[in-house]
Amino acid sequence: MGRAKEYLTMGLDCHIGWPSQERTVCFQGHEITLRPEKDTESASVVVQLNKDLTRTDARRLVKEFLSGLAWVRRGRLAETFCTFCTGAPLRIGKGPCGMVDDSSIEYIPDPGRPKAKLALALYREALSVNMVPYQFLGFFKILNVLHGTGREQKSWINDNVDAISERQAATRLAELRQDHDDVGAYLYESGRCAVAHAFHESVVNPDEPQHIWRLSSDLPLVKALAERAIERELGVKSQRAVRKAHLYELEGFRTLFGQELVAGLRAGESVEPGCLPLPSRLSLRLRGHDQLPSFDQMKAVVPNLAKGMVQIHLSSVDERVQARVLLDFTNERLLFDALNWLEVSDDGSPEAVRSCIDELLFCKHWMANGVTELWDSTSGTRLGRSQPVCLVNTRPDWDAMDRELAKLQERLDKETGSEDGAPGRGD
Q1: Are residues 274 and 353 in the same domain?
Q2: Does 21 map to a domain?
């Protein structure tokens, strides 16, 4: 008889958007399940233990994942209760109400440097503290990860504070400069030392409203400085930086092609299409929707390649569906236009009608802020994804599309003598 499965379940006091349905995320090679808050249950995370993941390892794994997620979402994410059990993961009783966020979790930083990991842990701790003085101190501790002495910390603040652009932080900086020539010294002595040391002459009294008001005003500035230290000094990219660079759109293709080949494409070097290690079969999908049969296992060829742009031509197994996708390595974009780069040949057969239904469903979901994805059909690996579609000066006629879908389905039913419709094709 096999060994019973063991799980870690951690309840959360969650002040960031959280999925409304269970979602599994791969982190450090392990699957972590995010479970939604319910009427009587807290938001929680679950991970299954194995011979390579001990209880201690599992705790560390989940905490590092939460620290990365807190960094990406910039909000409080604190554990309330943690337990291990066998058989099935336990449910955690409900705590404070939380927010729902069903957007995809595409980026969780997993820095290799111990200092970067520590800084993310301190950042989540600071976000999770519910008292202003200790929240201030928590953010300041991140600067201490970089510099051990007060002199070095003050110097770093003064060297970096002018680069702060966050609105509240910049406003507070302008206010402080009216009375303080040395902002670094002010934040260190009247903030960090005044919270950490009770004997300090400017000690912060938690019962003194003016003290708390002053620290609350300074908090956005020291938080912005901590974020700059994490991103610029420790190399942990923010979600904003990742989105701005768009590196995630072609991430799988960059890995597949290799750094040297990608560098050549970006430089505009002449590359023969046959030199690209492209899988012979690709699947065209829309994120959050089932794979449509007509767009699965599509034959992939590269008919054209120039100036950092790789054109991929896709054709369905029966060659009725033709599509074109562009990989723009110069601008790190995956480009696809379902209205102009997708064609279906209707020869009147039931198979052709099914393809027409798939095409219309794909276009309908694509126009509704769809995210196009390309997957390696053999390995089941996602190679690239586009930005969400944002139509301009266009108002789709959803009712007309539904009527057309109904007509196609009626036609298919007549031709096949079926009233059940096409299995697996629905909204």
Answers
A1: yes
A2: yes
